[in-house]
Amino acid sequence: MAADGQLTRIRIGSAPDSWGVWFADDPGQVPWQVFLDEVAAAGYEWIELGPHGYLPSDPHRLRAELAGRGLRVSAGTVFTALHRDDPGTWEAAWAHVAEVAGHAQAVGAGHLVMIPAFWRDDRTGEVLEDSTLSPAQWRILADRTERLSRRVREEYGLRVVLHPHADTHVDSEENVVRLLDSTDPDLVSLCLDTGHYAYCGGDSVQLIETYGERIGYLHLKQVDPAVLAEVHERRLPFGPAVGMGVMCEPPRGVPALEPVLQAAQSLGVDLFAIVEQDMYPCPPEQPLPIAQRTRKFLRSCGA
């Protein structure tokens, strides 16, 4: 941290998640114009694109909309199922990744956040496959994650950051470390989401201190411990857990974000730290006041 207490290496932003946006097209979500207006009004300068197709798909139009509000893009997001060895899986995954990466590059992003496939439906709880990967599936996941990261970097100039996520196979400390230890540090970095990692029992500060060279991006999020305990007791999927308020407004939950940000600052590299408070669904008037308070809180932390 700088002598004046400022986190000079941390670039704060927010994302459509914090406005209750999970899908490209959902009449219950706020219109994209409202999201852009309000994220700028809350004091953020950086955003993620959110679900592909939510923001305008024409990069010229989107760049103009962003510039008019003083906003820039840090990353796009993709969901992948790279551990599956079914015919056509890689080709389908790459077609989707290439579409999102091309759009992200065209609007000035430098990162692509990659989220592994869910092993159970995040809304209904339907079990889609085994929650544990076999050794062969781990090898496939590691190999294809490296392959995808290399190709995205070579063809689009973006850095892929893998996002450990609840109800996926890359969730807990054990599974995150297994993936890191199985992949090339030059190719595979993490988007450490503090909320998801706490949701799955991990310690974000410890991960940063132990695997600092693998931390390429941050999502700032907190969980409500009381709600999380009920979620685990009832074995609820992620979607209903969000509906119960498991992801809460900072600084009301865990982990404490100040030590996370300080640990990230100590790495001595520039990092995006994007606020993502999952709130799906939520009333349209709810996100802006929370976003304003959260930005004020993060300023008090030096960010």
UniProtKB/TrEMBL annotation:
Gene3D superfamilies: Divalent-metal-dependent TIM barrel enzymes (3.20.20.150). InterPro entries: IolE/XylAMocC-like, Xyl_isomerase-like_sf, Xyl_isomerase-like_TIM-brl. Its EC number is 4.2.1.44. GO terms for molecular function: myo-inosose-2 dehydratase activity. Keywords: Lyase. It comes from the Bacteria. It is an enzyme of class 4 (lyase). Residues 36-300 form the Xylose isomerase-like TIM barrel domain. PANTHER family: HYDROXYPYRUVATE ISOMERASE (PTHR12110), INOSOSE DEHYDRATASE (PTHR12110:SF41). This is Inosose dehydratase.
